[in-house]
């Protein structure tokens, strides 16, 4: 062997030995059904990562479109090296939207809308598979090493967003920043958990025929529920306290949290004690006709006749069919999401909250962004009143049978005279019907004893707050300042049940004056909640179906 090859071989052997030594030194947690070893130790943040912990059996074959089942016993040590994300897809209009909204918000009315295609063959990621029901646990070493001494520490659980068709447990950032802020200024720290749940057609099909064929509507919500029960049962083994669990989620994640709070009409207590929904979102899907149409369209894309055939079908075929259906979503929509199913979601969360049919053992801190709707608004500058009316019918198909309802939405709730143009008008309608009014429903349901905030850092569009939530160092400046404030509020709420702590501006309760905390580049202030209005009261009644 040539000297250089001998040197390389020796270096490789040393590296392999070092990795093996490191792996051998990483702790193992006995979960009874399996043995889970930490995947890595972050020496900078001083925390262990236990990645890809299986919390459910693979939802494949006969388990497709059913509620998740407990994992099989496998006493072999798992080190997190095996694990997939759930098959995901985003509609192509989304990239087009990012191409024009900045110009519009900056005052331009001569913006160019990028074209997009709905005919391209969907590409499948090798990092995704149906066998995807895994979760991650990140725990500071100081907490893990003392896990058997005294009470456990608070737990912060992340439920990701992505329109119920995209996203993953690790796709939005490292928990390092949140862990660091939770331990600052004498904080006790938190244990962080993030879960996967099924997406698109594999997680959100619904409707009468689907259910009659043995399908479980809202399977993605059941996935989340099982993961939350897993936390209740197992998190103490990592140093967490199952009686101090806070769920945190943005967009579809926040909407999922609202469904978890109202699950089963409130007859079952939520398996968590606190919630931080950020921009909670879902497209209200209540009509059986809508659900039936989505299901039948999926069968056509997959070229199958029913669920029994689908449970025998090739996974690639099913994944491509879901991606194609999402690809053909109308502008601003994702096709799939939570549906009223009579079981997990007996009615829309807003209705259940208004009727007192929800888990009342939860403390809430809720937030939304200043400009939620524009990302989902069709970029038609000369959007006419006729097209605006068609937009209402497209978003709420059942209103076609009730012209008086459309008249009320168009002329009373969102009269054109109140807006600079129809884009601003449509953006407000979308923001309130899908995002911001949901926060008001929570504030009212919990007797105004909540904490509510507005993320107003320009441009304040949907999703702009995620990099701030997961900020993990970088150049000091406005972003760091606002990030630290937001992270301190979140971790403070997780640790103490209220967001206030030394070093950050005082955060008042929502209260009878509907006070919300505003986070902006100019500082922190309070205003009266703009969602406390008659339009949100009307949307909560769900009179559009």
Summed up:
The protein is built from 19 helices and 14 strands. It has helices at 3-25, 93-98, 101-105, 141-145, 176-183, 200-204, 208-212, 219-234, 252-261, 288-302, 307-310, 315-327, 349-354, 385-395, 403-413, 422-445, 466-469, 478-496, 534-540, and strands spanning 28-30, 34-37, 40-42, 47-54, 74-78, 134-140, 153-159, 191-195, 240-250, 274-278, 363-369, 451-455, 515-520, 523-528.
Give me some keywords for this one.
545 residues; alpha/beta; Rossmann fold; eleven-stranded mixed β-sheet; three-stranded mixed β-sheet; 36% helix; disordered N terminus
**Level-2 CATH architecture:** 3-Layer(aba) Sandwich
Counted by DSSP, the helix tally is 19
Quick one: overall form?
A: globular
| Structural Rg | 24 Å
Count the domains: 1
Low-confidence stretches: 1-21
Tell me about the largest β-sheet: 11 strands, mixed
Q: Into which percentage range does the β-strand content fall?
A: 15-25%
Proportion in helices: 25-40%
Query: Going across the major beta sheet, what is the strand order?
Result: 3-4-6-8-7-9-10-11-12-13-14
Kindly, what is the distance between the CA atoms of the first and last residues, rounded to a whole number of angstroms? 78 Å
Number of strands: 14
Structural class by helix and strand composition: alpha/beta
